[in-house]
Amino acid sequence: MTTQLTRLLEPSDHAQAWSALREALARLERASAAGGAGGAGLARWIGVFSRSRDRVSIQRLSRPLIVLILDGTKRIFLDGPDGNARLVAREGQILLVPQGIPLELVNEPDPERGVYRAFTVELLSEVDARLQRRYPTLCVQRGLGGFEADRPHLLRSALPSIQAMIHLVSTLLLPGAHALLLEHRLEDLVLTLLLQHREQLEEGRAAASTLALDPTLAVRTLVRRDPARPWAAQDVARALGVSNATLRRRLGAKGVSFRALLWKERLELAKTLLRSGRHGVLEVATACGYDSASRFAEQFRRSEGVSPSEYRAQHRAGANDCWSEPPEPPPAARAG
User: Fold this and answer.
1) What is the DSSP string of 52-69?
2) What is the pLDDT of residue 43?
3) Where are the alpha helices (DSSP H) in 135-178?
């Protein structure tokens, strides 16, 4: 089952790259000890596999991590200035975790496959030092280059990031690969993720520039970028550069609530995916940020008056009607 929004909507080359990455990681797992770790140069990689729900507490992370979710879900809870924040990383998403922050992690197996799998790259301090020297305008602070060091960051599985990961894993599989080549591949991966992060920040700033003119558009623009994220009003307010109270006040002046806007954006995505007829209800629910297909279906029915399955069937039938052959005219009409 494909759960990442980008692989539901983007062209086939994205799906092919994702498949190639999974195959390369499977070969790497077989080449090393099952569920074990390996290292070379500036990083250490770890394969994580579990069939049960695991909860892990980390008092202080000693090194930055890049975590690619292959199967299942990783939930992150951390104490910050706004209380207990939460991130949910799903299959195909990439999580960057700076060093030095306390974390509580929950790894949950995929409900259909029954497993949780992730590929984790642990970065040594030399990686950050090299990036600081080579890209001083991008890496404006210590820790993990240009990523803010006080919180984890969740990135979409964009095609360049997948390709950079493929290059790294393929090089790790080469017998006797030179350390300089491995360092180059690792630097390429971090740089690609950094550029993607900067792009997401620019999207947030672009949305913030529309806040005064149209706060509903600003909120929907952010949610549309990553509808599966467990958005809270404080997350959107922070991205838009205002307080939670200011955001709610501006939305209230327009007669809408944050919760209603969030659902409206997710509903539009759900209807698009269901009309395609290619995706199951659980798959659509996950793409829209729901862990439970039943909760998603309940809210969809309240909004649309039909269940997601019924909505999909109706539009599939409509599409079949549009493409069906017209009936033959009666014999008399043909003769005329």
Assistant:
1) S-EEEEESS-SS-EEEEE
2) 67
3) 159-173
For the beta sheet containing 83-90, the strands, ordered from the edge strand earlier in sequence to the opposite edge, are 54-58, 103-108, 73-80, 83-90
How is residue 51 annotated by DSSP? S
Encode pLDDT of 255-292 as tens digits. 999 999 999 989 998 998 888 877 788 888 888 888 78
- Whether the model clears a pTM of 0.70, i.e. scores above it, the answer is no
Residues 261 and 240: their CA atoms lie apart, in Å, by 15
The CA-to-CA distance between both ends of the chain, in Å, stands at 55
Identify whether the C-beta of residue 128 lies closer than 8 Å to the C-beta of residue 143: yes
Distances (CA, A) of 182 to 52, 76, 154, 196: 33, 30, 24, 21
Q: What is the pLDDT of residues 97-125, one digit of tens each?
A: 888 778 888 899 988 788 999 998 887 76
Overall residue count recorded for the chain in this entry: 336
Residue 269, H or E segment: helix 258-276
Beta bridge partners of 121: 45, 66
The CA-atom distances, in angstroms, between 27 and each of 32, 127, 286 are: 9, 25, 28
